[in-house]
Amino acid sequence: MTWTVAPEPYDSPVAAALWRAYCTEVSDRWYLLHEGRRTDPGELEREIAAQSGADLAPPRGRLLVARYGGEAAGTAGVRLLDADTAELTRVFLYERMRGRGGAALLVRAAEDAARALGASRTVLDTRGDLVEARALYARLGYTETEPHNEEPYAEHWFAKRLAGAA
């Protein structure tokens, strides 16, 4: 089985399914940790609808989908914050696809997409309970920084200079 990563329209059925899975997992994880319950279905639907992903469309963004053996496996997005900085977002793999190298492949593909958009650095935020994500970013050369946004659930912020950026 091999991995492929390619751009995907943010509003495609594949992108929508991955966004729903991402929201469900990170939201349930937070609620289980902090309140001992899963996300209220109505709240989950509002969360999913609140972020269409349009900011990941060209010309200022890209949504990428990884496939493993042809099956949709995960996603990553980048969006320009300014002329030099792209934000990495929506990095996610279905649980059954983890441990096969897909996450690092997705992040590197997102960095390539950020370079193609003209960025010379990437930034991202994540939560404290997403320890696997924090370990991945550190392994790929991201360093913790001061906050670059005021996202309500963000607890850790990272940045990386992009080698070979124009």
TrEMBL record:
Pfam families: Acetyltransf_1. Residues 16-163 form the N-acetyltransferase domain. It comes from the Bacteria. SUPFAM superfamilies: Acyl-CoA N-acyltransferases (Nat). Keywords: Acyltransferase, Transferase. PANTHER family: AMINOALKYLPHOSPHONATE N-ACETYLTRANSFERASE-RELATED, AMINOALKYLPHOSPHONATE N-ACETYLTRANSFERASE-RELATED-RELATED. This is Acetyltransferase. It comes from Streptomyces mutabilis.
